[in-house]
Amino acid sequence: MVVGSRSSDFGSSAYLKNGGGTIYFMSDWSKYITKNSPFYWPYIVSYNIRNSISKFVKIPKPARKGVLDNDYSCKFGVFTLKDPKAGTESICLVKLMKLVFSVWVLTDIDSNKWKMIMKSRSKAMGLYDNLRPTISGFSVMNGNLLVIATDDNQLYKYTLTSDRIKSCKVKRAEKIGCHQCGREDVCFYSYSNSLRQCGQGAVPFPLQ
To answer: Which domain of life does this protein belong to (predicted)?
Structure first.
């Protein structure tokens, strides 16, 4: 497996079944690579399990903004995104910076084409009213649910839809539970379609 000059972030990864199975994971995004290097900007690595071929996927140019400014509020994640209506799946790139979430979906890996499907401030999403929280972690689960953990131990879900940025109506996140990790980095691991409310008789959240 070829991963380039940057360190790899295996904390978030995506898996697609196409072509015998392909794993996608993000590089780190710290500023330590010289500008004349092809690995100066952060990137995504894809690895095909069947033929053992690695490829580099450039992140969208708008996603580069502010990345190398040593802003510790900047975080990235690569996840599997499913469209329940079309029955298709791809990978998405989630960027969090200064409490603003931006999401792109990869539409063509060969030509490196991305489409932005969401950009919203945390306050507009309903994650807080007055006191700004620290985002402890986020992930895309159950196909198209952006799950967000805050440092006040709250968990929220936000449905990712392709028409989000075309609508003038601001969509709100829905509180789904609590955690006890505080400000620590919260990681999500889904072993099945298991995202659900707490309590007896609770069923998993459906694809929306």
So the answer is: Eukaryota
Q: Tokens 């805050």: give the residue.
A: 150
DSSP bridge partners of 120: 101
Give the Cα separation of 177 and 202 in Å (integer).
12
d(CA 23, CA 191): 16
Give the model's pLDDT for residue 168. Answer: 46
In this prediction the pTM is: 0.83
Q: Which helix (DSSP H) or strand (DSSP E) does residue 11 occupy?
A: strand 8-16
Averaged over successive runs of 10 residues, the pLDDT of the chain (208 residues) comes to 85 81 92 92 92 92 88 88 80 94 91 91 88 88 89 89 52 84 71 60 62
Please state, in angstroms and rounded to a whole number, the distance separating the CA atoms of residues 122 and 108.
Answer: 29
**Single-letter residue type at 126:** G
d(CA 96, CA 77): 9
Burial of 70: CB neighbours in 10 Å, binned 0-12, 13-18, 19+: exposed
- Beta-carbon contacts of 69 under 8 Å, excluding residues fewer than 6 positions away, are 31
Instruction: Please work out, in degrees rounded to the nearest 5, the angle formed at the alpha carbon of residue 165 by the alpha carbons of 163 and 169.
Output: 90
Distance in angstroms (rounded) separating the CA atoms of residues 138 and 156: 9
Residue whose entry in the numeric block shows the structure tokens 């990345």: 67
pLDDT of residue 179: 83
Neighbour count for residue 139 (Cβ, 10 Å): 20
Q: Do the Cβ atoms of 100 and 92 come closer than 8 Å?
A: no
